[in-house]
Amino acid sequence: MYRTHNCGELRIDHVNQEITLSGWMDTSRDFGGMTFIDLRDRYGITQLVFNMDDDAKLCESARKLGREFVIRVAGKVRERSNKNPNRATGDIEIEISHLEVLNAAKTPPFTIEDNTDGGDDIRMKYRYLDLRRKKVQQNIIFRSNLAIAARKHLAEQGFIEVETPFLIKSTPEGARDFVVPSRMNPGQFYALPQSPQTFKQILMVSGLDKYFQIVKCFRDEDLRADRQPEFTQIDCEMSFVTQEEILNTFEGLTKSLFKTTLGIELADFPRMEYDEALRLYGSDKPDLRFGMQFMELNNLAQGKGFSVFDNAELVVGICAEQQAAAFSNKDIKILTEWMQRPQIGAKGLVYVKFDENGNVKSSVGKFFSEEQLKAWGDQFGAEPGDMLLILSGEAEKTRKQLSELRLEMARRMDLMKAGDFKPLWVVDFPLLEWDEDAERFHAMHHPFTSPKKEDVARMLDGDHETMKSLKADAYDLVINGAEIGGGSIRIHDRNLQSRNFDLLGFTKEEAEDQFGFLLGAFEYGAPPHGGIAFGFDRLCAVMNGQASIRDFIAFPKNNQGKDVMIDAPATIDQEQLNELNIDLQKEKID
Ligand code: ASP
Fold this sequence. Notes:
- This protein has 590 residues and is of the alpha+beta class.
- It is built from 19 helices and 22 strands.
- Helix 4 crosses helix 6 and helix 15 (494-503) runs antiparallel to helix 16 (508-521).
- The longest helix has 23 residues, at 134-156.
- It is globular.
- The mean pLDDT is 95.
């Protein structure tokens, strides 16, 4: 037998029992007559003791063990004289009578501990060693718990899990497809799904009523810290539902996941219209852990001779509470330079400080009287000690810049508290987005999203300008400034779907060619339906207060989209290329 117990299991009650453990050699300490070894497995660490006086040969063998050797030991549990309250097994240790090396190990290229000395690249190359680290294992275990909790909750609500194919035809979710050549159909390609969107809608036409799937999706995008070319969604769809019912159902799922995996009871989620989110926070995914709502100052700040403001479409600011003293001129200079970096592109940053004695200090003190500046403060409801930060310029751009500033201030003021969760439904998204450069509409969510009932007639008959004002039954779930989920009520009527394709610039033939199956299905009794998909990796990260989804994926890709452990992507041999009818030489010349 390899083990009677695991390395996290033994307690004071086990004292005097003869046990067997197997695991990895974590650390060893030599004290002349005694050798201590920490034995590690997924469940924890147990201290082993080898005593020179009892068995010199055994003790010698123990001293020869290297880090990460896989061993099996047998011995007797005894109470420790020097207890370790920080460890679950800290009350006991094992007096070893038998040691067997199951497998030797080379010295690992980095230390297997929370604060490892290994950089990103080396840890990715030796991911199997990285995954031995407790921190990383806990993330993967959390992910497993979350998936199991989601399945359980959804099954209890009557959802059924259906697998949809990976080898499909392009679904437009706004990214590039990964494609797979078909050997049996020379010159033809499958696309990997960007999401199971059309399939889940077809399942509704089939009458399955409530579908879910924890499913891989593939999008060939440039990578950012929180993006991976393959990622996982909790994908859901329901029939005969209104937006209201969907929001309630998936608010229920989210609450249940927080409760079962973190023991946290979330209060009811507030809702905010998309337009309002942009007006108050300059973002459709505002972080509500802190205030600093936007306040527009056009009425007070314009027409007073300060040309920068006078020429701006929008003058808008935030109020940072009790920061007048905290931010010196030098700090504000650094903040201004941060805002002027090309990534953000602000021209300048205006501040107004209200100190504890009622004095006002501002970078535009020359242009505005104290009275006028105090009136700005009143507009914000500013208290003594507060500081206003104001930007101006073209409205949309300025709001985006101020949104970045709001987040940066929250970081500097330490307002993004771990363990504080502020979910929010953002609703009433526009249906279509006009792309100035390409001179065409894009679907704000995706082409299957339904306009609001009251906008259907306008969508069918309206002119170009009208299309810009159509609202959709589309919603996002945002938690702490991260988009966790998004979905919509779908179009289930062939005519309306055709009209949408038309507005999105598809010719009749293109629409038929790409989505004929869906349009066809709509002619055979498609029920009203809608759904949502949660970004599962991101949900894991946000629930653990972390920014990167990579730490919650067992085998993630790096920034170049590579898996450096298996060395993928890679070239394939000529024979395989021939079979697939791919002529790389020809492709290059063309
Ligand atoms: N398929 C959508 C997405 O991947 C989600 C949905 O509309 O249900 O974002």
